[in-house]
Amino acid sequence: MKAEVITLDASNAGSVELDDAVFALEPRTDILQRMVRYQLSKRQAGTHKAKARSEVNGPNKKIYKQKGTGQARHGNDKPPQFRGGGRTAGPVPRSHAHDLPKKVRALALKHALSVKAKSDALVVLDKAEVTEAKTAQLRGKFAGLGLSNALIIDGAVLQDNFALAARNIPNVDVLPVQGINVYDILRREKLVLTRAALEALEERFK
């Protein structure tokens, strides 16, 4: 399939041929869901922690005598039924990450790219470069291209001026091609790929 290439000034810069094996798949929501869940689970901190009864600070003295009070027998006041006591089976620090086969992850990326291509939300940009790191100027260029909510993927190295100018624009993310991922593609309305990014993706999926 063919795609028109545009510049930041909204002028035509020719066309490119997109690989049907990457950009023309019939999207499978089950694979995309598995990949998004994999990404979000992997980035969870997992630092949640509750104290068990053995970790609660305080004396181990029996709170009152065993008999004669008319109340239930108890030892110290650290069990979970007491205020300030330990929690039964509470959360502990752990990793939420789980495995997902490499082939499934690669296929999910292809399906995410196909989703954007099929919904006409894929934009091919000639170059992601500006002469000055001016956010206002770049915002104006994005407005001319209709990019108010977009993920921009460039080559292996981002131009400093472009990255600096874009980082203060809300709902616009800029990543090098090695950082492309399914979650960020799906959470933004538009996907913008530069020629350099397309070449790198073709090499990656070759």
Report on this model:
Residues 43-97 are annotated as: Disordered. Belongs to the universal ribosomal protein uL4 family. InterPro entries: Ribosomal_uL4 (IPR002136), Ribosomal_uL4-like (IPR013005), Ribosomal_uL4_dom_sf (IPR023574). Part of the 50S ribosomal subunit. The protein has 206 residues and is α/β, with parallel strands linked by helices. It has a single domain, classed as 3-Layer(aba) Sandwich (Ribosomal Protein L4, Chain: A). The chain has helices at residues 20-23, 29-42, 102-118, 135-145, 160-166, 182-187, 195-204; strands spanning 2-6, 12-17, 122-125, 150-154, 172-176, 190-194. It has a 6-stranded mixed beta sheet. α5 (160-166) links the parallel β4 and β5. α2 crosses α3 (102-118) and α4 (135-145) crosses α5. The longest helix has 17 residues, at 102-118.
